[in-house]
Amino acid sequence: MVMDVKIYIEGGGNSKEERARCREGFRKLFEKAGFSEGRMPRTVACGSRNDAFKDFQIGLKSRAQVSLMLVDSEDPVANITEDVDNNCVWQHLKTRDGWVRPESAANRQALLMATCMESWICADQATIFEHYGTTQVQRNALPSLPILETHDRHLVQDKLGHATRNSTKPYKKGNRSFDLLAKLNPDTLKRHLSQFRRLVAVLNEVMPK
Q1: For each successive 10 residues of the chain (209 residues), what is the average pLDDT?
Q2: Domain-by-domain residue ranges, the chain?
Q3: E strands within 42-190?
Q4: In the 8-state DSSP scheme, what is residue 79?
Q5: Is this model's pTM higher than 0.70 or not?
Q6: What gap in Å lies between CA 56 and CA 59, rounded to an integer?
Q7: Which of 64, 68, 138, 161, by CA, is between 20 and 30 Å from 127?
Q8: Which residues on neighbouring strands pair with residue 42, listed in sequence order?
Q9: CA distance from start to end of the chain
Q10: Are 46 and 55 in contact (CB under 8 A)?
């Protein structure tokens, strides 16, 4: 029997519409990653990262579900690894945000978008070109793929905005983020992003086929 799995996600702001777009974007991405109906995590768009941590702690109190938390790392992660049981994620969150791992939470229950959701978008350049049109994107302005998770988040966001500046709708964080998220290819993300591979590995463990 597959337990109810909830992922408390940083994102969606304070708007009901934007939070719905956030949930839908992640749902479509997870579906393409092989998590279909009956094996689909329930996404909770929490708004701020602090609210995501607070909601995650509340979720931990329910014995009827597995609670996970997915937030931006904001900064590059020291000793980053895709090992699901390594404590590098909680150590990073403690150092950066002062968050202490709850006693009832395992290392694998904290997940990261390193360093931000735009890193995921930049990892899938084919989808960026398809979404904007190949002539509307400056390829060499996008951040380097081999070290994508080590880039400062501001650099990643600025480069994505700069690379799409000639399109009719240049990239801007918000609703457009989740439209792009829904189109991403999970196989491409797994190729370039250790923390996306870690996310998929954790989901496969808590929701086995």
Answers
A1: 86 92 96 92 96 98 95 96 97 98 98 97 97 93 94 95 92 84 98 98 94
A2: 1-209
A3: 42-45, 65-72, 110-113
A4: T
A5: yes
A6: 5
A7: 68
A8: 6
A9: 10
A10: yes
